[in-house]
UniProtKB/TrEMBL annotation, chains A, B:
<keyword id="KW-0805">Transcription regulation</keyword>
<dbReference type="GO" id="GO:0003700">
    <property type="term" value="F:DNA-binding transcription factor activity"/>
</dbReference>
<keyword id="KW-0804">Transcription</keyword>
<dbReference type="InterPro" id="IPR001647">
    <property type="entry name" value="HTH_TetR"/>
</dbReference>
<protein>
    <submittedName>
        <fullName>Fatty acid metabolism regulator protein</fullName>
    </submittedName>
</protein>
<feature type="domain" description="HTH tetR-type">
    <location>
        <begin position="14"/>
        <end position="74"/>
    </location>
</feature>
<keyword id="KW-0238">DNA-binding</keyword>
<dbReference type="Pfam" id="PF21597">
    <property type="entry name" value="TetR_C_43"/>
</dbReference>
<dbReference type="InterPro" id="IPR049445">
    <property type="entry name" value="TetR_SbtR-like_C"/>
</dbReference>
<feature type="DNA-binding region" description="H-T-H motif">
    <location>
        <begin position="37"/>
        <end position="56"/>
    </location>
</feature>
<dbReference type="InterPro" id="IPR050109">
    <property type="entry name" value="HTH-type_TetR-like_transc_reg"/>
</dbReference>
<dbReference type="Pfam" id="PF00440">
    <property type="entry name" value="TetR_N"/>
</dbReference>
<dbReference type="InterPro" id="IPR036271">
    <property type="entry name" value="Tet_transcr_reg_TetR-rel_C_sf"/>
</dbReference>
<dbReference type="InterPro" id="IPR009057">
    <property type="entry name" value="Homeodomain-like_sf"/>
</dbReference>
<dbReference type="GO" id="GO:0000976">
    <property type="term" value="F:transcription cis-regulatory region binding"/>
</dbReference>
Amino acid sequence: MIHFIAVTVEARTAPKREAILEATIQVLRERGLSGLKVEEVAKEAEVGKGTVYLYFQDKQDLLKALIEHRTLSFYRKVEEVVERQGSFAQRLGEFLRLRVSWVEEWRGLWAAVAREAQPENTQGWLRGLHQHLQDLLERLVESGQQRGEVRPELDVELTAATIAALACNPQLEFPREAYLNHLSEVLLKGVAL
Amino acid sequence: MIHFIAVTVEARTAPKREAILEATIQVLRERGLSGLKVEEVAKEAEVGKGTVYLYFQDKQDLLKALIEHRTLSFYRKVEEVVERQGSFAQRLGEFLRLRVSWVEEWRGLWAAVAREAQPENTQGWLRGLHQHLQDLLERLVESGQQRGEVRPELDVELTAATIAALACNPQLEFPREAYLNHLSEVLLKGVAL
């Protein structure tokens, strides 16, 4: 038992674990949720099926690890942007760039994968994860207000939620830079005359 | 063969077909995509399993019909709002209300269901559907510019795409009316001081 725990702890930091998670999202993108089999993940990661089970108990455990790994790594990037020196407008632009890449990476599969990963209390688990993003965006809005760049009368919590909500896959293709500039422009200045 | 086609055409307008589609989204919400079985749908719709197969060839056909039925019905409601007399601000507010309800109804499952429904060319099919929404929102933006309510220098296509992008599930719960008012406020006036 002690041996098993030791292997698991070591496994958490192993590069093979990352490779398996990377392979999982690749298989998900190509075959969708119903096409995700541990065999396929092992093949894509170029490891044996048994190696996958060394790191993850089952498919559900793998999906849960995938969501947490990817989501927390996205939040770390967002935190870095929020904590950076610079104007609110610059940091908002950087956040939107990260957000659009994140949405594209998952192509709408995130919530469905999350549900398979944690079927008992999906909403509660996701809310816990999402609260990190909300907190980071509240810090961004507050810092914008302190710098005199964001309207002081705006509610911090709801403004952070609005920025978080601007995140869906546009589905249609637009020139990337023009689209990102436009998102920033509209969020900063609005559309009204 | 002629008889079969006649049944299918009649089936398309039958209330039982609607009840089965309604039951499908119910089962999806409760059990997720992997828990969706035709037996469960039949039970929820209070029909026999054979009845489901009278209307839909298989699970994939059922999911495709579900996406098209729900999405086109959402677009019809959006069209009604866009075509309505009234200020741009009012119609934008109504659109956001429809959009947030739509997102809540699917809870992030839409894209995953679409992928199961049409695995060969998901992106192409979704783009075709989404183009309707884009067209409707372009009409809304244009009418706002004609009424002198929307900044004339804004690109119509990208502004419509930005409004469409403001659509993700906030995950966290906010008071509904305050949240909707805030989305409208930020889209209309922006956050910048």
